[in-house]
Structure formats: structure tokens, C-alpha cells
Amino acid sequence: MEPVTVLPRALTATAGGASPGDLDAARAQMGFSLAWHIVLACLGVGLPLLTLIMEWWGGHTQDPSCRLLARRWARAMGVLFAVGAVSGTILSFELGLLWPGLMGIYGQVIGLPFALEGIAFFIEAIFLGIYLYAWDRLPHRLHLLTGVPIVVAGVASAFFVVSANAWMNQPRGFTVRGGRVVHVDPWAAMFNPATPPQTTHMILAALMVACFLTCSVYAVALLRGRRDRYHRLGFTVPLALGAIVTPAQLVVGDWAARFVAHYQPVKLAAMEGVYRTGSHVPLTLGGIAGKNGLRYGLEIPNGLSLLVGFSPDTVIQGLERVPPGDRPPVTGVHLAFDLMVGCGMFLLTVGVWLLVLALRHRRRPGPWLEGTGRPLRVFLALGALTGPAAVVALECGWTVTEEGRQPWVVWGLLRVRDAVNVAPGLATGLWLVVAVYALMTVGTVYVLRRLTRDRPVPVAPQESDVEEYPVV
Amino acid sequence: MLADTTLAVMWIGVTCYALFGGADFGAGLWDLLAGGSERGRAPRRLIEHSIGPVWEANHVWLIFVVVLLWTGFSPVFAAVMSTLYIPLTLTALGIIARGAAFAFRKVSTEVWQQRLFGGCFALSSVVTPYFLGSVAGAVASGRVPPGLAKGNLITGWLNPTSALGGVLAVLTCAYLAAVYLSGDAARSGEAHLAAYFRHRALATGVVTGVVALAGIAILHADAPQLFHGLTHRALPVVLVSAVLGAVSLVLLLRAEMTFVRVTAAAAVAAILWSWGVAQYPAMLPPSVTIGASASEPSVLGTSLGVLAVGAVLLVPSLLWLYSLFQRRPAPEEDRRGS
User: Fold this and answer.
1) Element (H, E) at B250
2) I need a labelling partner for A458 at 20 to 30 A (CA). Which of A362, B143, B196, B235 fits?
3) For B84, which residue in chain A has the nearest alpha carbon?
4) Interface pTM (ipTM) of the complex?
């Protein structure tokens, strides 16, 4: 397989004066704040959809449990959106504070998706304000409609931001001449080859994280014996939606991996621990990087060649194709990839189990999830684990994307060490940021837990009780 | 031409952020100064109601400005962010603390939580505009050279002009917030609250005017190029700002709360535009101009086109948001008042 693209020669170093400690601090700070924000971003995409479904269904059936759930989720959404909005703003600051060498040269190339994201985020913020605060001021149908732009803009935001990240993997839409960027085509940069697989993969991931995290909360309550309709609905509706998305994600994930094999073979080599180019490459599960290959892993003969090209004769490029200084770290990328796939398989299993339960339920009328049998408890316990598993898969996926691109910030063009801010003392900034985020984490978790206990759910919720529960 | 248009659109974003986002910060200052939990309950409730539905939308103007700066003038963005790394990191942390704490306080029910989150919200509402103002002072006084972190990392933002910028930012935020809040209280028929904020608007209005006058002397000594621009090319705008400021004070004295919103906002906007006019065409005075730092026409044209299309969606939505919450529920139907 030949490399598909011929990249222009690397730009000359623009900075390169930062100490190794400061470079590591900058990378740690960026990684940390991205890892934090991405969970909130996922909830920002998925939770409005869940809430809208619940509100619509509650209005349709006049089911008070649905309506109460919708209000509770809306309230959580308000808190999460605020925290997500500020942690997202910090990222746009950090792009300049930590990586001025990237932004000074390429800021104009990747500006377009961020401008579009700004518009989408603006729409999200405006309609979230209307949706949350005008719950009792607008008629039911109109109120539902004000939620639709939140969902659409949330998905659009995810698309735009991830397209900028895709550009870092497949830089397009400009020419480098004499160390300067010329002939910029912002649309070509935004719609680079990596955009379709990466954005689709991320949008589905966002839905999965939101669905599984929400269902986890109610799985715990169900395990503690609160089996009323309110908790059953809070568990099954998000889980069902997550279970629908998961198989689609499997297909898209396969597409994304195949894309990497063709367009960023070095990254695939790190993901799968392939050291030497060749055919009949096995698929290695687990294992850590040794001198000549992965050690302690479980090998499936011909597995990788079969997966990439459907034939054992498929040639897979190895790490030896690039100089040692241009190789991503193998152990971390490989294990993160395996862990992500493992979590995905786990989520698929829980989804299938739900399907089996649903089919059985059709033949045996009666309320869902009744009884105290061991299988049901195991199912609920696994359900409670789906949220953490989805988050682990999400973080691992981003680890693969970002670590797998190392040592480049713009693949093949600009190294991370040449993009970092040369101002001294970045390590101090890291500790400050970590401290503030730790406090914000404690605050968010505490407030969200308070929200669930805020008002005990009435045994037989009356309409008036539901209406009295304020959203904000 | 495209670069000038981009800069003008960005400056409109800066103005909107100052007028809307700034007032949200100012409300935080009044929250801080509202006194104990008993005495401060009424003003704090008004503040929460007034900024609750809109602060996130207002906050987006900052993101808008940041993105437009890096898209339209990438080297300027890199120079400002790298040299002013310290105040901008503190700004970022202030933004986090303000937004998160405000959201947390809104859903807290116990007094100690409301005090903790409220204190955090209020304190960061004062600190954040100060640092943003000091960044403006750093750029305006020519302390940010082109290149990565080429300026002085400490005196770049700890200097007379930055201090003036920071103090003016905090004062104008507080002034706008008091004017808006007084109007909000008057419209919902809470006369005592309206008077409470009207008195504060008057006081901060006078102080802001005095600081701005004293600032001229500071600029003369510390930022001669900016001083020259303000007293020559930008002089008409400066005078407009002074006149509008004086008119606003008269209107406040006569409790004309509807009209004073417009004049007070216009006076603050004129301060920003006088800076812009005085500095034009320099992006990073003294040497870096718009022409030298602007992105390619393809980038500027595309961004402007996208923003124009976006505005068609945004403007009606924003107007609907503001109009929906102009009339807040009277206190007796306010369920979370106590």
C-alpha cells in the first residue's frame, strides 16, 4: 500500500525554545482540559435529545413520570451546559496560550470551522436559555420546538470542532511557500479526507456517552430497590437509545480504522503494534511494546491483514517506515485502542441483553424490570457500568487520535515541540488549571447529586406535583 | 478592504461583549457588595433573574472575538496570547469560576452553599474584567511585539496603562450593570430596588468619568502614541463619549430609566471605538499593521460570508430571547424567591 498523500516539506521551527518540562506541562494541560471538556461536550449533544424525547412522550401520554424526568434532566442540562460552556471557552484560550506556534501560522486555515462552531454554539446558548427559562411560559408544542435547535446546533458544533481536529490529521487547503502559508482554501481544509469518518465517529460517541451515563444513574437507583415507573423509565429509555446507536458505532469505528490504515499508516502501526511492514500480520490483543514487537499480547494469526483488506495477503505498513523520532508511542496508543474496542463490545453486549429482555417482555405483559432475581440484578449492575465504560471508550479513542499523531501537531508539517509557547513557567499554569478543574469537578458532581435528591419523588406523582417542580 | 471589514466586525463583537457580557460581570460586582444574606437577598434575586437566562449567550461574544482574531489576524493572536500568557490564563480561570459558580448557586438550596458559590461567582466577576482590561492596556500601549512571547511577561500587563484599562473595565461593567438592573427593577414595579441600583449607577458613573479624565494624564506619560491618537483623530469619538456620559448622569438624576440604557451603553461603546480609531491602522502598535497581519482574502471573505449567514439566524433568535425575559414574573409568582 503506498502512501496516499505527498506532503510539502515541514515548516521550519517557529519556536522550539521551551524547556522539556514546560512542553510536557503544556501537553498535560491541553490533554487534561480536553479530556475534561469532552465528557461535558458529549452530554451537551446527547442530553438535550433525551430530554426532548422524554418531554414529547410525556406530553403525548400525559405520563407524569416522563414529565418529571424531562424536568429533572433539563435542570441537570442547565448546570452541565454552563460548565461545558466555560470549559470550552478555556480550550479556545489554550490554543493560543499554549500553542501560539500552531495558531500563528495555521490559525487562518482552521478558522472557518471554529467560526461556524461559534455560530452553532450561540444558537445553542440562546435556545437553551429559552428552553429552560420559558418552560412554563410557552405552550407545550412551541416549547418542544425551542428544544430542536439545541439538538441540531449541538450536533453541528461537534461536527465543526472535530473537523478542525481531522484537519490536524489530514492537513489540506493551503500551500506552504517559503515558510508561509498561502493559497488558503478554508472549505478544503474543513472538508479534508479525515472529516467524514472522524466526525461521524464522534457524534455517535457523544450520543452513546450521554445515553449510557444517564442510564447508569437510574441503574444504581434500581439496584437500590427503587423500582417505580420513574426510575424504570429513566433507565430503559436512555439505554434503548444507546443500544440502538452502538451497533452503528461499530460499523463507523471500523470505517475510521480502515481510513487510518490508508491515510495515516504510522498511526495504525502504533494502534496495532506493527513494527515491520509485511503481509499476514496478526491482530494482537493487549501487550506492551518490546524491542521488536509487542510482548505478552494475545495474537490472532492474519487477523489485522484480514481486518484491513479482507485477505491475509494485505500488506500492513510497519513503524520502521518512519525514522524513530517520528514514531508515536506504541504501548499507550495500542492499549488505549484495545480498551476502547473492549468497552464498545461490552456496551454492545448490554444492548443485546436489553433486546432479549424486551422481546421476552412482549410475550409476558406486566411492568418492566420487576422481580429480584439474580439475572436481573446482574443486568442492572452491568447497566450501571455502561456509563463509565462509555466514558473510558471516549477518552481512549481521543488518546488514540492524539497520541497516535505524535510527534506532530499538524501531521507531517509541524511538530508539537515547535508549536508550544516559549514563555517560561507553563508548569505553574498547569497546576493552577488542575486545581481549578478539581474544584469544578467536585462542585459539579455535588450539585448534580443534590439535584437527584432535591425533592423526593412522590409515590404516586400527581400532575400538580410535577408542575410545581421548577426547572430553574 | 476585507481586512478592515473583518476588523470592524470583530470590534462590533468586542463592543457587544462589553455591553452585554460586561454588564453580567458588573452584576457580579453588585452581588459581591450586596451585603449579608438577609440584606442582600432582594438585589441578589434581581441579579440572578436578570442575568440567568442570558449570560451564556452574552458570553459567546468573547468566543466570537477570539475566533475572529485568530482567523483574521493569526500572528496577532499568537503574539498577544503568548506574551500576555499570565493575565489571559487568569482571565480563563476567572471565566470558569464565574460561570460554574453562578450555575451552582442557582441550584443550591442551603445558605452556606449559596454563600460559597455566590462569593466565588462575585469575586471572579470582578477579577476577570480587570485582567481583560489590562490586556487591552498592554496592546494599546504597544507592549506586545510580534512573535512568540517576545514581550515582557510581567511588565507587559503590570504597568500604568494596563492598570487604567483594568480599572476602567471593572468600573464600566459595574456602571452598565447598575443602569440595566435599575431599569429591570423599575419595569417589574420594585421601586426601592430601582432606586437602590440607580444610586449605584450614579456613583459609578461619576467615578468612571473621573478615572477616565485622570487616565488621560496616565496615557500622556505611559502611552504617548495612544494619547496622540485619542487627542487627534479619535477626538470626536472621545467627545461623543464624554457628552453621552454626562447626558446619562442627568437622565439618571431624573430617573429616566428607559432612555438612559441607550445613552449609557453608547457612552461605553464610544470609549471602545475611540481606542479603535486612535490606534488604527496598527494592530500591535507601533509596528504591526492590519495589512501586515491580515489573513488571505479567501479566508476573510469566507469568514465574513459565513458570519453574515449566521447573523440571519442569530439576530431574530437573540431578539426573541431578550424579549421573552424583559418582563420577569412579579415577586409573588416567583417560586424560588425565598
Assistant:
1) helix B235-253
2) A362
3) A97
4) 0.88
